[in-house]
Write a structure and sequence with these properties.
The chain has 372 residues and is mostly helical. 68% of the residues lie in helices and 3% in strands. It has one domain (2-365). The mean pLDDT is 89.
Length: 372
C-alpha cells in the first residue's frame, strides 16, 4: 500500500509549478548578479548571489519537506503556529534590531530572522483552518468577527514595527480568503468601507512622517525630486530607458552610476526593466501569471476546503506582492517596501515563498482522497 500511495503522490506532483518557480529563481539570480556585481564596498562580485543561492537551496529542501507532510497536519497545528507567530512578533519589539527606523529583524548569527515574513504564511494556514470550519457558511457579519480578531492581533504587532507593506499583504490575503470562503459581498464592502473611513485616523495619528511622504510622493514624485521622490523618479527613468529590448545584462546605467537606491531589493524590477526592456518585462509577467494560474488550478482540484483556502491564500499573497512591487517602480502604486517574489534579495522572503509553494504542491499531491 505504501508503494501505491507513493506512486500516486508522485503522479499528482505539479512539475509545471516547480519548473516555473525554478525559472523565476534563475531570472532573479541573474538580475541580482547584474545589480550587485559592481556594488561599492564589496570586493566579491558574487557575494549577494552566492548568499541568495545558498538560501534558495535551503528553501527548496524546506519546500520538499513541507510538500511531503500531509497538509492536514498543518490544520491540526494551526493554533500552535498562531501562538508561535505572536511570540515572535512580540519578541522583535523587545530585542529586534532597528533597520531604517523599524524593528524588523532578530540577529541569529549569519541569519537575520524577520518574523513578519513568516507571519504571512502562518496566517494563511490559520485563516484556512478557521474559514474551512465554517464550511462556506458566513451568512452574518458577526461570523467574520473571530477571523478579523485573529488577523488584527498579529497585523497590529507588525504595524508597530512599523511595517506598513506587510500589514497591507495581511489585508489583501484576509479579503481574498474571505471571498473564497463564501463571505457576502456587502460584508466585504463594509470592511473595505470601514477601512477607508479610518484612513484619516491612520494619517494623522499612526503613520510615520516617512510613510506620509511616500504616499505624497506617489501622487506627485516631482514634489521632492532630490529626497523622497528621487528613488521613484530614477526607477521610472531606468525602466523607460530600457526601451523595447533593453540595454542587456550588466548594462544598467542606474546601477553603474549609483542612481537607484534599493536597486537589488525593493527596486530590482527597475534593473530588470532597464536591462531586458519591454519584451523582458512582459515575459517576466507571463511567468508570474503562470505561477499564479497553476496555484489557482490546484485550488480547484483540492480534496477539501482547507486545501482550497491554502492555495487561494498563497495565490493572493503572490498576486498582491507582484502587483504592488512592480506598480511602485512605475508610480502606479505607493512605495511600501514589498519585495518582488523570487527576484528581490532577501533570505526570509525567499524561504517563506518557497515554503508557500511547498504547501501548494502538498495540496496538489493529495488532491484525491486515498482509500484504504
Amino acid at each position: 500500500m505504501k508503494a501505491k500511495l507513493d506512486r500516486r503522490l508522485v503522479r499528482n506532483f505539479d512539475f509545471v509549478l516547480l519548473l516555473t518557480v525554478i525559472a523565476l529563481q534563475a531570472v532573479g539570480s541573474l538580475t541580482l548578479y547584474s545589480a550587485t556585481h559592481s556594488l561599492e564596498g564589496f570586493s566579491d562580485p558574487f557575494h549577494f548571489v552566492r548568499r541568495q543561492l545558498f538560501f534558495a537551496a535551503v528553501g527548496f529542501v524546506l519546500m520538499m519537506v513541507i510538500a511531503l507532510i500531509d497538509y492536514i497536519n498543518f490544520k491540526n497545528w494551526a493554533i500552535y503556529l498562531y501562538i508561535f507567530n505572536l511570540l515572535l512578533l512580540g519578541l522583535i519589539l523587545v530585542v529586534g534590531e532597528a533597520e531604517k527606523g523599524a524593528m524588523r529583524r532578530i540577529q541569529l548569527g549569519i541569519f537575520e530572522l524577520q518574523p513578519s515574513e513568516i507571519a504571512k504564511l502562518i496566517m494563511i494556514v490559520v485563516l484556512a483552518r478557521m474559514l474551512s470550519e465554517k464550511e462556506g457558511k458566513l451568512p452574518y457579519f458577526q461570523d467574520l468577527l473571530p477571523v478579523l480578531a485573529a488577523t488584527a492581533l498579529p497585523m497590529g504587532l507588525i504595524f508597530l514595527q512599523p511595517d506598513l507593506g506587510t500589514s497591507l499583504v495581511f489585508l489583501a490575503v484576509l479579503l481574498g480568503m474571505l471571498y473564497v470562503a463564501g463571505a457576502r459581498g456587502r460584508h466585504l464592502a463594509a470592511l473595505v468601507g470601514g477601512g477607508l473611513a479610518t484612513a484619516p485616523l491612520f494619517w494623522f495619528f499612526l503613520l510615520k512622517p516617512y510613510q506620509k511622504n511616500r504616499l505624497l510622493v506617489f501622487i506627485n514624485p516631482e514634489m521632492d525630486p532630490i529626497n523622497e521622490g528621487f528613488q521613484l523618479l530614477q526607477s521610472m527613468i531606468g525602466i523607460g530607458s530600457g526601451g523595447l529590448l533593453g540595454k542587456g545584462l550588466l548594462n544598467s546605467t542606474q546601477v553603474r552610476l549609483g542612481y537607484l537606491p534599493e536597486h537589488y531589493t525593493d527596486m530590482i524590477f527597475s534593473v530588470f526593466g532597464e536591462e531586458m526592456g519591454y519584451v523582458g518585462a512582459v515575459a517576466l509577467l507571463l511567468l508570474y501569471f503562470l505561477l499564479i494560474y497553476r496555484i489557482l488550478r490546484i485550488s480547484t482540484r483540492a480534496k477539501d476546503q482547507f486545501g482550497v483556502l491554502l492555495c487561494c491564500g498563497v495565490a493572493v499573497m503572490f498576486t498582491f506582492q507582484v502587483l504592488v512591487n512592480i506598480g511602485m517602480t512605475i508610480s502606479i502604486m505607493p512605495v511600501t517596501g514589498i519585495p518582488l517574489p523570487f527576484m528581490s534579495y532577501g533570505n526570509n522572503a525567499l524561504l517563506v515563498n518557497l515554503a508557500a509553494i511547498g504547501l501548494v504542491l502538498n495540496v496538489a499531491m493529495r488532491r484525491h482522497k486515498i482509500q484504504f
